Amino acid sequence: MRQRSLIAITAALAAGALTLTACGSRDSGDKGSDSDNGGSTVVIGVDAPLTGDLSAMGLGIKNSADLAVRNANKQKLVKGVTFKTEALDDQAQPSAGQQNASKFVSEQDVLGVVGPLNSSVAESMQKVFDDAKLVEVSPANTGPALTQGPDWQNKKVRPYKAYFRTATTDAIQGPFAAQYVFNTAKKKKVFVIDDKKTYGSGLAATFTEEFKKLGGKVVGTEHINPDAKDFSAVATKVKNSGAEVVYYGGEYPQAGPLSKQIKAAGAKIPLVGGDGIKDDTFMKLAGSEATGDLATSVGAPVEDLPSAKQFVADYKAAGYKEEYSAYGGYAYDSAWAVIEAVKKVVDANGGKLPSDARAKVTEAMQGVAFDGVTGKVSFDEYGDATNKQLTVYAVKNGAWVPVKSGTYTG
């Protein structure tokens, strides 16, 4: 068990999140705790949905961040520092995410956080982390407003300097999908559906804008309850609209049944979505007629990247029970970015963590750059990933198969 302050332990016990088995003292102040070997222990928090419908993606994030920490320790990348992870379950709920953010802030040996998965959860966490100068790096958030402000389409203003992400945004992903659907798939009439959440509605909006600009026609729109499973009424509307394709802004727990029910209603047309539907669970929920459905996802296929070969091999060798899923490579790179920032701070302070380590790590993150699992990793002035590559995947023989990679040309 890693060492904590008595305050942090008391808070964790009160929250029912910690069983106290052993305890030791550590230095006070804004730095990692002393480890048994005389060095410092730095904890990287991980926030993701570890239970519930989206746990396949969340567990992939948790495991991949853990793998990054294992490799950093094995390499002794930061002399005198041992890295550990602490994962908390946000259940894809903003309220839980905010509570997790407060818990991480209360534990002074936490010097960075990887996550969350959902943009709506990130909205509830950003200010908590920013006020504490605790850096957060998401492998999966794609909502543009998180880094560029609520009026990002007219004037980009970075709201929180402690927030970064390794995934590209829906400002690029939505239009990229629209270009593929209109120009490559030759679909001119679309029915647009979203789940009313930050991620889904934002993605649907950027897709719709680009699709119309290209000359496509939106023949219907609908908003669904993100907890719903019965989409028969919506499916009937799609069938009667004459749509050639459905675009869905949301995630796989709803996208799979929605696709299945649309086809059962007689509309034998593809469903297209973003990275939130690109999980193998989608096919299980959508059934055999999912063939031809499409999804965009950030970056290039990890399995096809030379830079990811070692990650794939290491992940398999580590024996994790769950797949790394859509964001595994990005979670690894997010954790490694935190590790690199800690290294910068330690190197600049004579081989030790300074008393204001959190603030220094957040500041150092802006200049982090390295060759990661997903390619070149670095951040622009908004904290966004400089890697803007995206890929379109199609369901073929019960699996997601890449059909086109590139960048949005707007």
Count of helices? Answer: 13
Count of strand segments: 15
Percent of residues in β-strands = 15-25%
Distance between the termini: 51 Å
Give a short account of the largest sheet: 7 strands, mixed
* Mean pLDDT across every amino acid position: 91
How would you write the strand order of the largest sheet?
A: 8-7-9-10-11-14-15
Radius of gyration over C-alpha positions, nearest whole angstrom: 22 Å
Per the principal axes of the C-alpha atoms, what is the gross shape?
A: elongated
Helix % is 25-40%
Low-confidence stretches: 1-29
Order of helices and strands: HEEHEHEHEHEHEHEHEHEHEHHHEEEE
Protein structure class:
alpha/beta
Tell me what the structure shows.
- By secondary structure, the chain is an alpha/beta fold.
- Helices cover 40% and strands 19% of the residues.
- The chain contains 13 helices and 15 strands.
- The strands form 3 sheets. The protein has a 7-stranded mixed sheet with strand order 8-7-9-10-11-14-15, with helices on both faces. Strands 1, 2, 3, 4, 5 and 6 form a 6-stranded mixed sheet that branches.
- The N terminus is likely disordered.
